Amino acid sequence: MLAGNRLLTASSILLVVIAAAAAGFGQTPAPVQIAANTAAPPAVSKPAAEITPSTSALQARIEAQQLEINKLSSLVEKLQAMLEPVASTHAVLPGSSIGFLPYPSPSPSPSPSEPPVSAGYQAPRELLPDIGQIGAQLGFFVGGATNPYKESTGFASGGYIDLPWKNVPGGKLSYEIMIGLQRTLTNNLTTTSGVNALVNTALNSYLQGLGLESYANVSPALFLGLNQATPLIDDTMTVQERSKVLTVAPFELKYTITKLGRFRPYGVAGLGGYVWIGSENNTKSFASSLNIPSNIAGLYVNCTVSAQTGCTGPTLAQVLTAVLSGSQIGGLAPAAPDLIARGVPHGQGNVLFGGQVGAGADFRISPRLSMGFDFRHNQMEGKNGGFNTFAFKQGLNW
Hints:
The protein is an alpha+beta fold. The chain has two domains: 1-21 and 72-88; 134-397, Porin, CATH 2.40.160.20. It has ten helices and twelve strands. An eight-stranded antiparallel β-barrel has the order 3-4-5-6-7-10-11-12. Strands 1-2 form a two-stranded antiparallel ribbon. A hairpin with a 2-residue loop joins β10 (348-366) and β11. α1 (2-24) runs antiparallel to α3. It is elongated.
């Protein structure tokens, strides 16, 4: 700014010199008389030739003044070129006396801080360092849950993100996305397997084909009576059910009361999608469901009754256990043994539509950390599709 003022002052002086030179152009020099206390001497008339200069003298004077004007013009042009950067950054007010007034220095406008540059890499601008907290919350929860389809209670956990939308009377309205997963183990459920009923019929024909009527320890009357009164394998079994429920709620509205200070109760409601997957296991109860006498259960399936002595291989009980015992699909039959050996997941399930409503509260321990509790009631489509979750949660405010 000091250099700019100096340049403006120098240009003003040059303009004054140019004006003085222009004013002197065309005027003839005349003697200047200084006032004194004595009387002026009487004027002496001179010849006209001495007062009026000659044409050649006037021409020489004009040429000398023209050279001086050219030099001053070149200096002005240089000064204008030097003043162009200053004029480009400061607005010039109109007026003839601007060159003689000091230019007021404007207050510098705040400019955004530039991101750090390191080794040729320019870091992108980040939202939070520039504007601070935006009133959002990211958190997770863990707790217990009831489960749909009359299953036992179980464990639930998940996470959520809460994004502010608008201020409303008494608090704020925000948009929430929640994802939760729960699991449970239900014992002593009863299932009826149509596969077992088919196996009973096939097993009856198979044992007759082995010549069981001629087996020394089993009479035909006992064999026929066993199949008529009691099935060889029970159709109805007691099973243990494992199930999981995945909850994805992508659109929820949450109203939070913010006028109570650190304590912030809220209510929430929205729509969601649900995935239920489960399987039934009859391993513990399968042995008791076999109503086959031990001497028949111990028969080798690859030999006839008359050739059992010295025969080797799987017994009838081993074959039935391998085929019908284990984690069932739809309560009918287990998965193939080779798939189970590979660890391939199995079970039955479905993707369901539903919604949830809930309430809870947050307590702000610090501006960045919150603790609280949350209750949700979920309702999936279909019969017995409702369940609840109750969890403690921790939130990170940003």
